[in-house]
Specification:
The structure is a single chain. By secondary structure, the protein is α+β, with helices and mostly antiparallel strands. The protein is built from 15 helices and 23 strands. The strands form 7 sheets. Strands 3-9-10-16-13-12-11 form a 7-stranded mixed β-sheet, with helices on both faces. A 5-stranded mixed β-sheet has the order 20-19-21-22-23, with helices on both faces. The protein starts with a helix and ends with a helix. The protein binds adenosine-5'-triphosphate.
Length: 454
């Protein structure tokens, strides 16, 4: 599936719409439609289930988007959360300079100085991807932080920032959570929520946007055990993706080379997914030592150390951090599951082989003939919707309704016909195999429960 095909598919079926469309849009912003909203909710639910609820060590948190700006001083974001940018003198388009070099020359320019970037662009006569001109401004740093102000007076003392990542809210609450939940190291705190980055060149649909939803776990462990946990969470993330159906051939691990790591980092591995433009980052897993907590100790002057109750050792915990964007997961799951299938009789059907746990609707209820079977079908819809997110469709011929359900990934189609009225049986058609089971209405919930287990 190409990116254009995906965008069109997502729009056609109500997964994703262009943002602010009736006003001409807003730079690569997107609205999740009814089905996209459901699917993102399921992705978040799966993440919380696996990373928090099924772990005896981990708990959740919900901290605000706007926090005391000192947090961003301590974390280093105000000083160094920048990307290098250049402008095309001819067409005025703006580019992230390191990506421009990477795309034009295949060189990794991450971490280069502005002078090095200027020299590479000049020496290689790099051209503008938009208009083809060879005339760029000198590279400059550009802060990715969104600035706003808080309170009634708009002066520099009221300047605050929209968080560019969710994890700082976790660090600053480390002590509160540890105390209130009587947690012992090792333990993790996970959070999901919006993050904002004023990206120079957003693009590739949902891959790089300026407002996105992040799921981050900060796992606090004893210094010396970080490698063990780093390996553990790398495997854990890969298994999470595979259990939800991501194919092996669509996944790759990329270990950041040692010389590229920040001085405090003990290792970073990205899980890459095979997007239409090639393998690119889906999930970042970082072993961050005690850097973040130490910075907050330094700036807040508060004691964020941990006293081991058994050994009486006091230390600043080390952190292993798996961090992922819900939008990138959404993109990967859609691309991985979509198929334009040719059937044995030569017909084709669009089908989304998405894991039932992630599917927007778990089942669709279909009265075979609207006039005759609607009353019973509505009764069954009501029954199922007490427990599952299901849809109801009484339009068009049954074959067309099956096709629509296949295309949006609904795993089960429950058809109500004369046999339902006479004997209380419904027919359940499986999205992937297209085979049908006959089930009693009284056993329908059990049937679906069994099939939807995750
Ligand atoms: P990149 O190098 O692509 O800019 P990054 O390495 O800076 O990303 P992190 O800061 O490690 O990204 O963010 C963790 C995760 O958050 C990423 O793996 C990705 O899933 C998600 N993410 C980061 N930036 C964006 C964005 N602009 N749009 C959507 N998701 C994002």
């Amino acid at each position: 599936m190409t990116l254009e095909e995906l965008v069109s598919y997502a729009n056609r079926y109500g997964f994703v719409f262009p943002g602010s469309e009736i006003y001409g849009g807003l730079a690569n912003s997107w609205d999740y439609g009814p089905l996209g909203t459901l699917m993102c909710e399921n992705i978040r639910k799966a993440w919380f289930k696996k990373f928090i609820d099924e772990s005896k060590n981990n708990v959740r948190l919900d901290s605000p988007i706007i926090v005391n700006p000192r947090v961003w001083e301590a974390s280093g974001h105000l000083k160094s959360f920048n990307d290098p940018k250049v402008d095309c003198v001819a067409c005025k388009n703006r580019f992230r300079a390191d990506k421009l070099i990477e795309d034009s020359l295949g060189i990794d320019a991450d971490g280069m100085t502005l002078d090095q970037i200027d020299k590479l662009i000049e020496d290689n006569n790099i051209k503008c991807p938009s208009c083809g001109a060879h005339d760029f401004t000198k590279a400059r740093t550009f802060s990715l932080m969104y600035k706003t102000s808080q309170g009634v007076v708009e002066d520099s003392s009221s300047t605050v920032y929209l968080r560019p990542e969710t994890c700082q809210g976790i660090y600053i609450d480390f002590k509160n959570v540890q105390r209130a939940m009587r947690k012992k190291i090792p333990f993790g705190i996970g959070q999901n929520g919006k993050a904002f980055r004023n990206e120079i060149t957003p693009g590739n649909f949902l891959f790089r946007v300026r407002e996105f939803d992040q799921c981050e776990l900060e796992f606090f462990c004893k210094p010396g055990t970080e490698n063990e946990w780093f390996e553990y969470y790398k495997d854990f993330c890969v298994n999470f993706l595979k259990e939800l159906g991501l194919k092996d051939e669509n996944l790759k691990l990329y270990d950041h080379p040692k010389e590229k790591l920040a001085f405090y980092s003990k290792g970073t591995t990205d899980i890459l997914f095979n997007y239409p433009w090639g393998f690119d980052e889906l999930w970042g897993i970082a072993s961050r030592s005690d850097y973040d907590l130490s910075k907050h100790i330094e700036y807040s002057k508060q004691d964020l150390t941990y006293l081991d109750p058994e050994t009486n050792e006091r230390y600043v915990p080390y952190v292993v951090e798996p961090s992922v964007g819900v939008g990138r997961l959404f993109l990967a799951f859609l691309l991985n599951a979509y198929e334009n299938e040719t059937l044995l009789n030569g017909d084709t059907r669009e089908v989304l082989h998405i894991h039932p746990y992630l599917a927007p609707y778990k089942a669709v209820v279909l009265p075979l003939i609207k006039k005759t079977h609607s009353e019973k079908a509505l009764e069954i819809f009501k029954l199922l919707s007490e427990e599952f997110i299901v849809s109801y469709d009484d339009t068009q011929a049954i074959g067309k309704r099956y096709r629509r359900a296949d295309a949006i990934g609904t795993p089960f189609a429950v058809t109500i016909d004369d046999d339902t009225l006479e004997n209380g049986n419904v027919t359940i058609r499986n999205r992937d195999t297209m085979l049908q089971d006959v089930v009693k209405v009284s056993e329908l919930k059990d049937y679906l429960r069994g099939k939807l287990k995750y």
